[in-house]
Structure formats: C-alpha cells, structure tokens
Amino acid sequence: MLKYGIWLMVWLSGAALASNKEGEQVTNLIFIANHNSAIEPDLLDVQAIIRGDQSNWSNGNPIVLVLPGRKAETYEHLSLQMFGESGMMMQRRWLKLVFSGRGNPPRYADSEQEIIDLILSTPDSAAVIRAQHASKLATLVVREI
Amino acid sequence: MNRHSIVTRIFFPFALTTLMFAIVLLGVVPDRQAKILAANTENELFSIAKTIALSVNIALKEENLEALAEFNSFLKNDAHISVAGIFVDQGGSVELLAAFPSEVESALIAGVDPIKFLVARAPFKTKDLSGYIEVGFSREQFASRLQAINLTLYIAFIAILILQITVYRIVQLGVIKPILASIKSADALGAGHLETIISRPSGKGEIAQLLGALIQLQNNLRDRKAANEELTRSLEHKVLERTEELSRALQALESAQKTTNAVIDSSFDAIVLLDKQGHIQEWNSRAIEMFGLSRNEAINASMARLLLTEQHAKRFYLKGVFEAASLSDELIELTGHSKTKGKIDLQAFITALKIDHTEQWAVFLRDITINKSIADAIDNQRIVGSSVLDGLPISVSLESRIQDHVLQNKAYRTLEGQGFSEVDANRDTERRESAWKEGTSGPWDLVLSNDEETRTFIGAMRIIEPDIPAQERYLLRYLVDVTELKEQENELRESLASKDSFVSAITHELRTPLHSIVACLDLISAMQGPNDIDARQYVSVAKSSSEALLSLINELLDFQKTVERNLHLASDPFPFFPLFQQSSDMCHILFEGTEIAFKAEFKGNEQLMLVGDARRITQVVTNIVGNARKFTKQGEVSMTVDCQPHSSGDFVLLFKITDSGIGMDENTLARLGESFFQGTTGFSREFGGTGLGLSIVKQILFAMNSELVVESTLGVGSSLSFELRLPEACSAEFEKTEAIDPIILLPPSLSPPQLVDRRRPLMKVLYVEDADTNRLVMKAMMAKFAVELTMAESAMEGLKLARENRFDLIITDIQMPFHTGIELRQWLADDDDIHAPNIIAFTANAETTKIKEYINIGFNDVITKPLTLAKFSSFLKPYLDAL
C-alpha cells in the first residue's frame, strides 16, 4: 500500500528543450514523481530537481531521483535532453554532487519500466521518462514537459 | 652551600629526579608523540583516501552512489579529516572532479596544499575514468590534537613536581628540620643557653630519641643552674634584709626624732622639759609664743621665774610637787607672766620622765586666758538671764531631749516645789511630743493642782532651733497662771448673762402688754363710727405711740443681740435687684407728705443672684435712710447702689446715702455710732429715737466684714456709705430661692379686711394663754372672723380640751407657767387620739432664729406679738380658705 499519493507531472517539452545541437528528433518527456505534496512543482522546480540543485521536497523529505543507467535505452538520449551532455558526464555530475554532500544519491534503472517500478515502489521518488510510456501510468498523473 | 650538609645531600637527588622528569615529559616524549601522531594520522588519511577511491570505483562501475553517499556522511560526521578531493586524469592533466566539503572546491583545484594539511593520496581507475583521491588533515587541527596530548604530559609533570616537593617537604619537616633543631639546641646548650626551647616530636623514632636526650640534658642543666641561682639569691636576700633592717632602724630613729620635735614644736600646748632642779632644758615654739621668751632666753632659766604668784612658784621648788606629779593626772591652774602679754592664766599638766637613769619633768602648759574670760562672761550673762527669768510672772522652763531641765525660772521652780501637777500626766507627754515634732504646741488651757488648791494656766511650748546646724534643740515651755483672770471672766460672763436675760425678759414682758394695747386700739378703731373724730384722733395718737414704743423695744432687742455678738447672719441666695426695689419702696413711704425728695438708683446686673442676709441688708439701708430723713428738713435724700464684680468672683455692692440735712461737726462725727448718742444736746427731744440706729447698723456691718464710712459738713449735709462683698449664688441655689415676701405696709386709712363671712362654716379654734388680757384681746379679735373659739388658761387645760374636741386650729402661747406651749405641742403630737392638724406658736419673741426654732420643733406656723387685726386677718385667711 502506498503511503503517498502518486502523481505524475508531464511537462510538454518547451522551446528550451525542443531540440539539441545534433538535430536529433526531440522526444516528449514527462516528469513523474511519487509524492503527495499539495503544491505541484513548476517547470523550474522540475529542472532544479533533475539537475540536483533541489534535493528536498517542499515538506523537507529528500528527493530520490531515479536516473537511466548505462544499459538503459534512453541513457544517452535522456542525458543529452535533460542535461545537454553525455551519460558519462551526467554520472560524473551526480558523483560530484553526492561526494561534495550537495545531492542525495540517485538510483539508476536499466529501463523505463524499471524507472516506473522504482517510482511506484519508492516514496518521494522522481524521474523523467518518455511521454509514450505515460499510457502505462494509468494511475499516475502525468505532466508533459 | 656546603655540599656535605644534610640539606644538600637530600635536596640534590630530589632536584635531579625532577629535572629528569622534566626532560623526559617536556622534551623527549612530546617530540616522539608528535612523530607517532603524524604517522598515525597519515596512515589514517591514506586509509580514508583508499576507501574513497573504492567508493568511487563502486559508484562508477556499479552505478551505485549509495556507498559514496554513506562515505560522505562518514566524512561529515565521524572522520577527522579536513578536506578531500577526487582528481581525474583529463588528457594528461589532472582535474578536480569533486571536493569535500563543497566550500573548498576552489581551493582544491590545484590539489590539497601540503603546507596547510597533512596529505594522503590513493589512486583509482575504472573503465572510463582514472585519477586519485587526496585527503587532507589540517595541520592546525593536528597541532591542537598534539597540544592536547602534550597538555596531559605537562599535567603529569606538574603532578610529579608537586609530589616531589611534597615528599621533600615531608622529609624536610620530619627529618631535616628536627635534625637541624637538635644540632642547634645542642650548640645552644653547649654555649650555655639553657632556656633554649627544644621541641620534642611525637613518636619514638631516632630523632625523637635524640631530642628527648637533649631535653633531658637541658633539664639537668637547668636544675643545676636553678639550684645555683637559688643559693645566690638566698645569700643576696639575706644581705639585703640585713641592710634594709639597719636602714629602716636608722630612718625610724630619725623620723621619730623629727616627729617628736615636730609634735613638740607644733603642739597646741607649750611643752617645757625641766631637770630635777626645775631648770628649763627644752622650750618649744608654743612656749616661745606664750611667754615671749626665745629658746636661748629660756634654756637653763628657772621655771619658777615665769610663774606670777609666789605660791605657784614655790610649787615648782617643792620637791613634793615633782614627786607627786608623776602620779598625778590632774590639771593644775596657774597664773604665769608673759613678756609680751603680761599676766596669763595657765593650765598645766606635769609628768615625770626617767630616761637613762636621768630624771626629768615634762610640763605641758595651755593658755586659758581667753577661755576663762569667756566663761566668766557667760557666767555673768547666765546670772543676769536667770535674774530676768526669775523676775517674770510666768513659769518658764527650758528642756532638752537629753536633759529634762536645762533651765527653770523661779516661778516654775516654785510651782514644782509646791507639788503642782496635771491630773492627766499623759497629756503633758503628748504635748511635748507634739512640740518636738511640729515645732510648737499650744496655747492650751491646763489645770494644775496639789493637795491644797487647783489653779488654771494657759501654756504653750516652742522648739528653739539652734543657729548652728547639728547643735542640740531646746524645748521652751511657759505657763501663765490665769486662775484669777478666769474667775473674773466667769464673774463677768455671769453678770452679762444675767443682764442679758434681764433685758430679754423685760423686752419680752414689755411686748406682751404692748400686744394687748395695740390689739385693743385696733379693735376700738374698728368699732368707731365715722363721726367719732376726736376719739379717732386719740386712738390714732395712742396707736402711733404704741408703735413707737414697739419700735423702741425692737431696737433694744436688736442692739442687745449685736452687743452679745449673737448676731447670726443668714446665708441664703436672693435676687438683689428686687431687694433694692423693695427697700427703695419702703424708703419712699418715709418721705411721703414731706418737702424732701427721695431718689434711688441702681447700677449693675438686675438679674444677679447673691448669697447673704437680705433682711439685715434691708435693715441697714432703711436705718440709714431713716436717719437721713430724720435730720433733713428739705432738699433731697438719695440712695445709690453700685454693683460690680470682684476679681475673686464675688460681687462688691457700694451703698451710698446722701442727704442735704443739717450735717455734723467733727465732734459729732467722732462719736457717731456710740450707743444712745444722738448728736448735740436736745437732738433726742427734737428728732426722737433711741440713738441706737447707727450703732446697730455698725454692728451689723461689722458682722458682715464691712464698716460705715461717714462724710459730713455741718449745715451742708452728710454722706454715709458702706461696701458689701457677697458671693454669687450658684444655679443649684437658685432653685432653693424663695421669692422675698413683700412687706405690706398698711396706710392708716386702709380698712381692716373683710372679717366675718357668715356663709362659711365656722372654724374651730383652741387658744391656750395664761394672760387674761391676751385671752380677752384674742376673743375680741376672733369675734371678727368665722371662728368658734375655745380658750384654755394653761397647757394642761388645753390638752384636756383637745382630747374632748376636734379643733381645726390650736394657737398656744409659748411662755406659760408650769408647762410651756412647746410641751403642749409635744403632748398633742404624741396622742394619736387627738385631732390637731394645725398647731400655731404665739410668742412675743419675734427673733428669726426663734421662729425657725419653733418651726423645727414641729409647730405648723408662728405668729408674733403684738398682733393687729390686719396681721391676724392675713394669718387666718389660708386656714379659713382651707375649710
């Protein structure tokens, strides 16, 4: 039984994230989170969470960020789309954040399904997945980025 | 410092040990500690760096940052490292990937500074990334940690130092000091200082034993020394004692000699030392002064030369005097000769002295010339005083507490010689005690008697206080024999009493027939018709003559009383202004039908209530005004009364009566007020009266503590004044005050009262009277009223009639033969069967005191003789109205 209500925020990809330098096709991403805060984060909050700049929810609970691992299909794609850099650089970023004590250690998942499962099973967790997987989240509220 | 001394030998090992501890704990150990700590720290840092490297490997290979996060938590909370950095190879160069804590990131870009930190490095290598981990520990922190460790060493050293000092101190106190003290004490004892204090420590150690032995030695030495000193002192003391004894003996001898000389020289007596032949051997200062001879002149001279009479001189030549003198304790009186004073009286005491087989005679001489003169003078005075006292007609004695009789005069001695004494001896003792206590006693009357006669005395006692304090007090007692005087006084009193009773009886007897005359004339006057003009004139003359005679008798009675000093003044509250008005009204009547104007004026408070004898004041005023009327033919008579408050709270009334009459010359003024005196010859004939008026006035005023002041000029007029000082009546007395009964003066033309009212029931009256004429008069008077009269001639008959009848009124004469009216009243009162509601006294004695006396006895009322119809009518009216 989930202690927290789960909502899914999907941010429709905006102009800032609409395309990358290589001109790859931009995939719509959604931000999902297992958290029952009444205050829904806006776009800036979502970016801060993903980049490790915000490590706690508004009620003080630590945010458990679920990131795609090296084996995940979206490892590089999402790294590029979310951070504008490679998956390796994303991992180094998070190594730096954790070592220096500024970020909670993120969880790595090998697939988007695994991400969703982790989100569903981990309170105060958050992650970014591709929008087409939103149909699998019937019980979640999805916000388009 | 002596290197062989015990102090040096014990101190140096302690000091050396302490120094060694200092080198080890403060030098060697801290350095070693620093090195070990640095090595340990570097090892620890390296381990940490290795662990971090492992964590990074895991994080990168396993994609698990949990371990790194936990290590981060460890670094933050538990590890004592200061900084840590992850450095990665970046194409030949090294770049800082992450820093802990994040704040030092910029400082770690070039790596951890080995100057500021102890640094350890551990490499790591993964598939994608290689580099190393550097961990730094702040050298400041390292120094602090080292300092903390070294602080423990310092504390340990200080503790060791304190322990060393304490041990040394214990050794010093327990061993060094006693040993040093023993050495010092032994040195001192050796030097002979036996009083050196040697303290023996407690316990039985060797040092204590050593000091004990020293103390024993000291005690032995002290005992020896004390014994020596005692011996020395004893010897010195004996020497001193002997010396002092000798010195004291010498001083005593000198002192005795000086004292003897001083005593002899300063003696009050002249002291002369004679040899066996009577030649002077010693001659003191007093002797020089007494005889006017210097010591040189006197020494070896014969004492007999200095004695005036041959007889006295011979006494000193006679061997027997000297021989007897040694046994004699008597004073010998001698007459001597002084070179400066001439003849001197001497008192001598001679005593024999035998010193060192040499016989001498000491003569003590005192100049008694002055004493003898004083004694002679006192003797003379005593003789004169005794003569004076003996010549006195009174008995005088002087007594002291110690000695009963110091002095008695001849009269006193005679009294005692004749055996006169008081019957009650205790009374005399009481008087004496009273005099000693109070200072005076008496005067008192006393009766002394012997076997033959009794005599009366007046005596008194008085204490004579001495002029000099503490001198004895004396009791002066004197007795005056008044036996003859008392007898004369008694005779005189008896004579006066018989004269008074004679005058009283005469006046009483005069009033009684006068009563009949006045009453009869009144009755005749009432019976006469309007046409009996001549008869009416004759009756009028007879009535006025009777009244004049009555007035004369009243004046005589008044005078009699004032002369006897039996004048009793009433002391009743009365309102003064009404009294003044009443007196004024009475005086106005005196001037009716004359050419003399009478004026009366009052100044003062008209509401004033005073206390005094109102009747006597009226009497004085009317007498003086009457007198003025008598000696004034025309002009004016005025009376003023000025009433003013006195500072004492009383009121002063100044009465002044002035007339424009004939006045008086000096001779008449001087004799004014003498009894029966009435100015110049012929006054009595011309002006009438007894001449007693002013005399009575003066007596009454005297009784009221006042006097009559008379000023007069012959042919011009007179002024008589007097002052009365009366107290104001208090409010309580107001309530008792009765209104002054107005005195009704019936003018001659006034008709008698309505006499008989036939409509009324008859009042039953019993009249008891021994005089036939009075009964006749009463019967005639009673006939005028609605009265049924019964008469009795004696008290007994009156009692009998009262028992048989019921009378409304019983009138009885007072003075009756056999039984008086007073006795009759008592009988009537004692008999319950007799109805006698009103018993009236009828008397010729009109004195107020008598009237009060009768009322007090129990009479319901009093009527006085003579009785007129008008007076009787007024008297009967209330009784008749009550029926």
The most extensive interface, with participating residues per chain, is: A-B, 18 and 22 residues
Give the proportion of residues in helices of chain A. Answer: 25-40%
Rg of chain B, Cα atoms, Å: 73 Å
Tell me the number of helical segments of chain A per DSSP (H or I, 4 or more residues long).
Answer: 4
Considering DSSP H and I runs of 4 or more, what fraction of the residues of chain B is helical? 40-55%
Report the CATH superfamily of chain A.
Answer: Periplasmic binding protein-like II
Low-confidence stretches of chain B: 680-688, 736-756
CATH topology (fold) name of chain A: D-Maltodextrin-Binding Protein, domain 2
What is the count of distinct domains of chain A?
Answer: 1
Termini separation of chain B: 157 Å
For the residues shown, what is the average pLDDT of chain A?
Answer: 73
Largest sheet properties of chain B: 6 strands, antiparallel
**Multimeric status of the protein:** heterodimer
Averaged pLDDT of chain B: 81
CATH architecture term of chain A = 3-Layer(aba) Sandwich
Domain count of chain B: 5
CATH-scheme architecture of the largest domain in chain B: 2-Layer Sandwich
